[in-house]
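User: Can you recover a sequence for this backbone? Please restate the input before giving your answer.

Assistant: Of course. Working from this structure:
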């Protein structure tokens, strides 16, 4: 009962939608992540929280680097693609690499390349503190999540 109420109440906090990506010997990998935030300016740190049940997170964790792709409001289909487990999520997704060599998705509102700085236990999630190595942004509006549904700014 508390878990249901927890989800309902905290669903009233609006969040952006990101896709965390990396690449290994098997190819590019990524997962949708709504738990992302800036943490520190000096040094530049961000944090995100992948589920411990994720099949993609161990691949990214092993590489110790990746990119956080902040989705634009036209990328609801991208969020849905990366939210499922398994399969070739990059089959229909355009992406490129920057100097750090990790996948940056085309059309994102912003991206942050990172190195994993620390990982902490967060219950059924890991709390990842990541050092920012590069980042950029483009004009547009974010894809958001509120009360269990994707939302767009009007």
């Amino acid at each position: 009962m508390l878990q249901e109420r927890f989800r309902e109440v905290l669903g009233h906090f609006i969040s952006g939608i990101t896709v965390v990506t990396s690449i290994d010997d098997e190819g590019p990998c990524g997962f949708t992540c709504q738990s992302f935030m800036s943490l520190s300016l000096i040094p530049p740190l961000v944090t995100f929280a992948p589920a411990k049940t994720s099949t993609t997170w161990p691949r990214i964790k092993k590489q110790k680097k990746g990119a956080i792709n902040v989705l634009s409001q036209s990328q609801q289909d991208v969020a849905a693609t990366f939210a499922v487990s398994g399969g070739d999520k990059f089959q229909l997704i355009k992406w490129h690499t920057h100097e750090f060599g990790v996948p940056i998705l085309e059309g994102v509102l912003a991206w942050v390349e990172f190195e994993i700085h620390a990982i902490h236990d967060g219950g059924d999630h890991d709390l990842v503190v990541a050092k920012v190595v590069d980042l950029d942004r483009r004009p547009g509006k974010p894809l958001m999540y509120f009360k269990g549904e994707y939302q767009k700014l009007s």
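That completes the design. The mean pLDDT is 95.
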